[in-house]
Amino acid sequence: MKPPTARRRVGAAGIVAGLLLAVAAVVLGVWRPWIPAPATTPISAAADGASETSTVIAPAPLVLPEKPTVLVFGDSWTYGSAATVPTLGYAYLLADLLGGETIVDGVRGSGYLKPGLDGPTFGERIAALDPSAAPDLVIIQGSINDRAQGVAGYRDAVNAAWDTLAATYPEATIVVLGPAPHELPVGAATARIDTDLSALAAARGWWYISPIAQEWITAQNYLDVIDVEVGRKHPSTNGHRYLAERLAAALDELRTAPVTEAGGSESTPDE
User: Which residues, other chains included, contact 204 with Cβ-Cβ below 8 Å and sequence gap of 6+?
Assistant: First the structure.
């Protein structure tokens, strides 16, 4: 960096150069020639926080058949915890809203690094999925369960799991549904997970839906969505219905939305 005295000596040539750069910036801001075509091969993680994960690849438009088969994969929210019965969970309700059927694979407490109460980590569970299921759409939800596991190895685990998922269902569209807050304000660890997953999805050209960035759960509706007592900060039956409706609406928007967007900002029970 130039010292202050050197900066003060910049004359007309510097001013002209600055004007040229400003004009170029305006042109590039509209044209954006650096955005590449969507990736067609798996992306393996480098070190955590590697710069390549900041690359944004425009996702292809979401196209579904008239009666889609949707695999919804995730944690206890996908399982249907705190609904009157698990089959009133958002993942099951989504079938009618999309006019198709859902295959629900939810394991309570499970994350990319953390084994669940009823099964192993996301990566191990994905490796055990049935390739013959051949879903049209895969929604991989969450998870906030890794918030106590720290940063080390997280992105590597996510990328490894996603590589396996893409290889298992090469014809399916994959949409990542980020973590939803089980408590407010949103904790720093949950926000970090949301940001990491958003960046990794963007690097693959996968759609990312962030309930945090889109403010699905706010101070105004928190107690209507989350059962803080018997449900131990999981969605209530009405909360699951609400989440299913929000997810269906978000998927509908992806049919025409041009780009994916990053998302944004705890204690207690595993989700």
Answer: 39, 43, 57, 162, 166
